[in-house]
Design goal:
With about 240 residues, the chain is α+β, with helices and mostly antiparallel strands. It has seven helices and ten strands.
Length: about 240
Amino acid sequence: MKAYSITDIGRQRSMNQDFVYASDQPVGNLKNLLIVADGMGGHNAGDLASRYTVELMVDYIEKAQEERPIPLLGNAIHHANELVMEKARTAKEYEGMGTTLVAATIKDEYLYVANVGDSRLYLIDQEIEQITRDHSLVEEMIRVGELQRKDARSHPDRNVITRAVGVRVPVRVDFFDVKLEKGDKVLLCSDGLTNMVEDEDILQIVRKSDSIKEAANRLVTEANRNGGKDNISVVLAEY
């Protein structure tokens, strides 16, 4: 597996509250590790929450004895969640901070995924498939039939998330596993990409690029061309 990551402030934000991590080398007992976190909170709190969460997860995984990917990712997220909540109590400016999170690792032809919030993971081959499910208000409205998916992108509450790391104990995490085929590409991204670029356009950019680095950079460029209303983060890996 090879991986590439990029994060960009976008065109309308004053700071970048996203944080990305991509290692195609072993991290503890994991053969590789990919993470995107999209922070929320006050001026500095969102930036701290995303970075701190990822750093806590990586540190936990490096030291853990667990070898099974899903339990290891889950334990790392729960560990980070508790410490982020503790950090939020240390200063008034950190109150209410939290972060979305999508993390993945590949082992023995399988992709293992954990997510909290609305940062996404896609599997891309000849088609594009969203593996994660958004934990957001508009996704709940779609699920119960109150909103059409085509209208979700323009809904005024599209940025309201229903789960985040650092908000409550225990944090609720969704897990997925997917069998991979040679040449499959795995895309982790924040909503700064998916709110600005349609899934079909993401697919075409990835398929028509000569490398994952070129594809990732073109995705960021396209999100900015379409308005760049939020921070944009992309981690792209090829199996």
